[in-house]
Write a structure and sequence with these properties.
By secondary structure, the protein is an alpha/beta fold. The chain contains 13 helices and twelve strands.
């Protein structure tokens, strides 16, 4: 059987909760499981947070940007190495993305470059309307430092934590708890899944209320259907929320298992020419995917050679995200950096990392890689 990159991993608890939703006939969006899922996420992430359960992480980002005040003609600063869904909502609103490089020590947004450009933009009266750093491959950005910069320059901070639920920073803050808002994803390949879904997490109670309003077609309070604003069909279904509740019961166990998978790869494959994604000192990454780079000058083979060999043995792998400033649709966009993300894309690969990956499957992957490197 094919070994996949990151399969959904059910615990057995989800079925009981979904059956409850069916029995109560709360099938459509809204219902007690949606409310409970929002409360569970908020409780897990910390005090003073509010959640709105939505149909995807992209939907959550779209609403967060809209509620923060981003509109046509504005500029939004964003990590270039990210999934397209972390950038497209900027375009939905008619705004323009400006892309930023990664810090080679963390593989997360380079805060020094951001600070330098904020100082320059402030002096030129062209500050962005929002900043979106991405928690890459399960590692949280430096939430506290970014919040200080955002406050200093009075720019909304929306953290893309789609890949990092369960991660912790060096000052004990949980990924998904920072900024004016954070967004989570529960897509099928994430740490936990609702089959498809997302969450907007915010410290602003009015932002959460506004997100719920906009995500249910912005229906005004009236006995008839009345709309004073444009809304969206973005609410998470009660059935999906029931799955999410079951998954939250095993979140920390799923993170622990993925970290074990990473460690076995690291111990077996730490040879000249292979460099794994670093974990910043004091941070606790989820290791959503085991990400590493392959140096062809030292190993004699490149990333594509490795992917081809693994695929021949029915093993799925994937390059790192192609930076957005290199995408055809964003050709000519402004980019700030030294090309760290470009180099990572050229050499980087993600290996199968699911929490249900068996020891035998991982041994098979490692044996193929070692044979290829020799």
């Amino acid at each position: 059987m094919r070994i996949y990159l990151s399969r959904p991993h059910m615990s057995g608890k989800e079925e009981k909760l979904v059956l409850e939703a069916f029995s109560s006939n709360y099938i459509a969006p809204l219902g007690p499981h949606v409310d409970a899922f929002e409360e569970t996420i908020a409780d897990y992430l910390g005090e003073g947070l509010y959640c709105a359960a939505l149909s995807s992480g992209t939907a959550a980002l779209h609403l967060a940007l809209k509620i923060s005040g981003v509109s046509e003609g504005d500029e939004v600063w964003v990590s270039s190495m990210t999934f397209a869904g972390g950038v497209f909502p900027i375009i939905y609103l008619g705004a323009t993305p400006r892309f930023f490089d990664l810090d080679p020590k963390t593989w997360c947004l380079d805060i020094e470059i951001i600070e330098t450009e904020l100082l320059k933009a402030s002096s030129e009266n062209r500050l962005p309307k929002a900043i979106i750093p991405t928690d890459l491959y399960g590692q949280s950005v430096d939430i506290t430092s970014l919040e200080k910069l955002a406050k200093e320059f009075d720019v909304p901070l929306i953290i893309d934590s789609a890949e990092s639920l369960g991660a912790i920073t060096n000052d004990a803050r949980k990924a998904g708890s920072g900024g004016d808002a954070s967004i989570l994803s529960f897509n099928g390949n994430k740490i936990i899944t609702t089959s498809g879904g997302g969450m907007l997490v915010t410290k602003h109670k009015d932002w959460a209320s506004k997100a719920r309003f906009l995500s249910t077609q912005a229906r005004d309070e009236a006995p008839h259907y009345q709309h004073s604003e444009i809304g969206y069909n973005y609410r998470l279904s009660n059935i999906c929320a029931a799955i999410g509740l079951g998954q939250m019961e095993v979140l920390d166990e799923r993170v622990r298992r993925r970290r074990e998978v990473f460690k076995r790869y690291f111990d077996a494959l730490s040879i000249p020419g292979i460099d794994f994604m670093p974990e910043a000192q004091g941070y606790h990454s989820t290791r959503w995917l085991t990400a590493l780079t392959i140096d062809p000058t030292k190993l004699g083979i490149n990333r594509n050679d490795v992917m081809k060999r693994l695929n021949e043995h029915e093993i799925e792998s994937r390059p790192l995200w192609k930076p957005m400033h290199l995408q055809p649709i964003f050709k000519g966009s402004r980019y700030h950096g030294r090309g760290v993300d470009e180099s990572l894309f050229e050499k980087g690969i993600c290996l199968p990392s699911g929490s249900d990956l068996s020891l035998e499957e991982q041994d098979e992957i490692i044996s193929h890689l070692l044979a290829l490197f020799k």
